[in-house]
Amino acid sequence: MDRKYAEYLLEKTRKDYNLIADEFSRTREYIPEERKKLLLQYITPGEKVLDLGCGNGRFYEVLGNIDYYGVDISEKMIETAKNRYPKAKFQVTDALNLPFPNNFFDKIFSFAVFHHIPSQEFRLQFLKEARRVLKKEGLLILTVWNLNPCQMILIGGYRRAEDFLKYQIFKILRKLNLDFGDFFISWQNIIPRYIHCFTFNGLKKLTQKAGFKIKDGGILKSLKSKESNIYLVAQKPS
């Protein structure tokens, strides 16, 4: 993907989430039990933890006695997070240039954010920044939507599967400045949000390329719906 177009997509994502922040936050009041379990399995009280792409900050309340930092590219989402949890540390931040020193965090978690990062170059930069600010042997807990077309059809997401295939055909015909696996998902038929569709193996290889060791991973199934996420637990080498 052309770098300038990738930069445009990053800026579009920021503006999109600013525009839908209030309504989006209202749809993110509930905290999925499977994500709580994943976090609590790996995060220990007293640790310094970064919520990378924190949105409205909803995970702050379930993590207990940790030194919590929440960052997001959307100014409106951070404003919401600060209003909800005034004692927490939130700030507007570009995930590709984190304002923290090397070896700062014990753990980083990033839920449903990475699929919004366009281009192989910027995805690697995202992962390398996470590795940089992690302490040695620190963990990155990462999830992305499981948007395999077969999976989407299986759960009744025919429109998403159709859109995905349409954009791949456009890519083959060279009618779009996107990479294979890229497409747009509409938010309430208002805003088309940029998404990259990952496979588990593709996500694993990219994370390893950024210098991580894979500790765990697989499909994180929702306990409330048919939807699922791909997850990885990756460790910074000592």
Task: List the defining traits of the structure above.
238 residues, alpha/beta, Rossmann fold, seven-stranded mixed beta sheet
SSE inventory with pairings:
Blueprint: H1 3-26, H2 33-42, E1 48-52, E2 67-72, H3 75-84, E3 89-92, E4 105-111, H4 120-133, E5 134-145, H5 149-154, H6 158-172, E6 182-187, E7 191-196, H7 200-209, E8 213-221, E9 228-235
Helix pairs in contact: 1-3
Provide structural commentary:
The chain has a seven-stranded mixed β-sheet, sandwiched between helices. A two-stranded antiparallel sheet has the order 6-7. The protein has 238 residues and is an alpha/beta fold. It contains seven helices and nine strands; from the N terminus they run ααββαββαβααββαββ. It has one domain: 3-Layer(aba) Sandwich (Rossmann fold). The protein starts with a helix and ends with a strand. The protein is globular and about 50 Å long. The mean pLDDT is 90.
Q: What's the quick description here?
A:
The protein is α/β, with parallel strands linked by helices and 238 residues long.
Q: What is the overall number of helices?
A: 7
CATH superfamily: Vaccinia Virus protein VP39
Radius of gyration, in angstroms, nearest whole number: 17 Å
| CATH arch. level architecture | 3-Layer(aba) Sandwich
Distance between the termini: 33 Å
Name of the CATH first level: Alpha Beta
Low-pLDDT residue spans: none
Number of domain units: 1
User: Helix content range of the residues, please?
Assistant: 25-40%
Query: What's the arrangement of strands in the largest beta sheet?
Result: 3-2-1-4-5-9-8
Strand content: 25-35%
The strand count comes to 9
Q: Tell me the CATH topology.
A: Rossmann fold
Characterize the largest beta sheet: strand count, sense, and whether it forms a barrel. Answer: 7 strands, mixed
Pairing-aware structural class of the strands and helices? Answer: alpha/beta
Shape: globular
Report mean pLDDT, rounded to a whole number: 90
Order of helices and strands: HHEEHEEHEHHEEHEE
